[in-house]
Amino acid sequence: MQIERALESLRKQGIKTTGKRRALLEVLGADYRFLSAKELYEALAPEYPSISFDTIYRNMGMFVKAGILETTNLEGERRFRLGRSCGQAHDDHQHYVICLGCGSSLVLPGNCPVKAMALPGNFQITGHKLEIYGYCEQCCPADGS
Length: 145
Description:
The chain is of the alpha+beta class and 145 residues long. It contains four helices and six strands. This is Ferric-uptake regulator. One of its GO terms (biological process) is negative regulation of DNA-templated transcription.
């Protein structure tokens, strides 16, 4: 289970696994879209009425640093999603198409196009991200425009 791997990764890094942190991971793990802090807040507020945006942002930052979350920016807002690897070491990575309507994301198939690029000079890539934005079949206007 992805959430259990994420919690184990936190524990191995010396990060305490509290009830609120587990609840945050459960909300993130229940949906494969990138979620905003507001969406996380709204999902957790009924069970944790004292939760604040500061708590959510602080924990999301910690989770990103721990390697269990992926992030993106949509419409000027940072969004989060439980990472595929949940802190596990891996050499591969994924690229996405992200729906601007519902926020769903799908993995682009095939090999990484960046690896095949001819880079100028002796440029060394330390990381990259490829995200394509548009509308999924459910959110796309009927006339295709």
